[in-house]
């Protein structure tokens, strides 16, 4: 199994609609959110993001603080040969709930896997960063 180490940082859990880092809680991620090198020694064609939602703002933080806090989570993970995001690992986070929200959202992400010589290969993504700046969608306690 080949692994490609892609050194890039992706940002933005809450962005402005239409921006490359668009990711409103519960919404689908913009396909341009994920940028991969076109070709490396480990693969001939990069993975392609197909579908998945942005991580939501963690509910426990909404319930236990006077107002939502800002923070971030940086995780690494692998896109396996089947195009699934697996093996999330927290690289850095301002609060464990932020990392947990990203890891949970990853379960639903699907990619067209990277390929080498026409065969799917696993790709390690070493840094995926999401910014949690605010709860989007009004007062969650009134919903």
From TrEMBL:
Transmembrane segments: none
InterPro entries: TonB_C (IPR037682)
Top-level taxon: Bacteria
Record domain TonB C-terminal: where: 69-132
Example of a GO biological process term: transmembrane transport
Pfam families, sorted: TonB_C (PF03544)
Full protein name: Energy transducer TonB
Species of provenance: Horticoccus luteus
Taxon lineage: Bacteria, Pseudomonadati, Verrucomicrobiota, Opitutia, Opitutales
């Amino acid at each position: 199994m080949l692994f490609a180490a892609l050194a890039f940082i992706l940002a933005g859990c809450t962005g402005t609609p239409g921006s490359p880092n668009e990711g409103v809680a519960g919404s689908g991620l913009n396909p341009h959110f994920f940028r991969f090198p076109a070709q490396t020694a480990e693969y001939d064609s990069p993975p392609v993001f197909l579908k998945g939602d942005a991580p939501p703002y963690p509910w426990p933080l909404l319930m236990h603080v006077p107002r939502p806090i800002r923070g971030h989570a940086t995780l690494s993970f692998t896109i396996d040969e089947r195009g699934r995001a697996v093996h999330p690992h927290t690289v850095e986070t301002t609060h464990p709930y932020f990392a947990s929200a990203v890891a949970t959202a990853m379960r639903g992400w699907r990619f067209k896997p990277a390929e080498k010589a026409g065969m799917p290969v696993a790709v390690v993504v070493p840094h995926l960063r999401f910014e949690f700046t605010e709860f989007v969608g009004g007062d969650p306690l009134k919903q």
